[in-house]
Amino acid sequence: MRPLHSALLASAALAAAGLTAALARPAAEPPAEPSADKWKPVWADEFDGPDIDRKKWDFDRGTGYTAPGSNQWVAGWGNNELEFYTKRPENAFIENGMLHVRAIKESYKGREYTSARLKTRDLFSKKNGRFEFRAKLPTGQGVWPAIWMMPQDDKYGGWAASGEIDVVEARGQEPTKVLGTLHYGSGWPANVHTGKDYVLPDKGTIADFHVYALEWEPGAIRWYVDDKLYETQDFWWSCSDRDGPRGVDPVNESELNPWPAPFDQPFYIILNVAVGGDFLGKPDKSTTFPADMVVDYVRVYDKAGGYGPVPARGAGKLPFGKP
Q1: Which residues are catalytic?
Q2: What is the pLDDT of residues 57-84, one digit of tens each?
Q3: Whole-angstrom Cα distance, residue 323 to residue 311?
Q4: Is 166 exposed, middle or buried (0-12, 13-18, 19+ CB in 10 A)?
Q5: Per-residue DSSP letter, 255
Q6: CA dist 188 to 80, 192, 193, 211, 255, Å?
Q7: In the chain, what are the domains?
Q8: Cα 45 → chain centroid
Q9: With the C-alpha atoms ordered 309, 314, 318, 321, is the resulting torsion angle positive or negative?
Q10: pLDDT of 5-49, one tens digit each?
């Protein structure tokens, strides 16, 4: 892997690049960069080149995937989504120093919609740190933008025993609200998720630029919008036991993977716009296409001075009833 950013670049270089690109950007200025004495930059994409950097981003393609371990085909990406993901420039491109991830209503390989799903898997992954995204999200019934993270390696088993971190996702028909969520537990169908909605203040909308950030430390994960902390999670669990292809509910502490599993492994970044699915329903006549998620930058930081010891699991109820 080619080094992408290092502490030697310092925040001055990032700021200079941001100032140059800002001349062409109509959105409000982003919040100040994280304090240099707390967070140091380790990886970033400012999208200032003419094309998507294939040394930083790969693409998922198609209408589903083969589940690791079981070799079972999961149609609709597990959510009954309607799009065909491509790596065509029609669906993902850079314009005016920003990444566009575009969902289009069109007939393509048996589907009525196309879109793109970019990922850093096998190119960049990390555990712990600050993950920051300045973006504006598409709106409309049945449009599902998401910025999220998945484990580089499924150390603890198939989804969701090895975890999933949703930095931000939104239902396009609810443009004043975003969600931050963790998925964990045993493998499907014994998985669980916990999260919180955040309503943008002052009649704000996801169609405007906001800075969505996640701070991940051992045993605690925090969600921010425009530097406003709105959610903290410090309770989760992971179990690798299975009954054939299915995950099972643990019956005692000995069946759990050591805390803070599964969020003690490197995760990679995903940017996508889905269409339809169980989470929000199908588009209707009111939905406008194309629908773009526009990303100004992605910046990843490490904690200056490193991370302390893992605290005890926070308050919550394990599946076998032990608090």
Answers
A1: 164, 169
A2: 999 999 999 887 677 889 999 999 999 9
A3: 16
A4: buried
A5: G
A6: 16, 9, 11, 32, 16
A7: 38-303 (2.60.120.200)
A8: 15
A9: positive
A10: 333 333 434 343 443 333 344 444 555 677 667 999 999 999 999
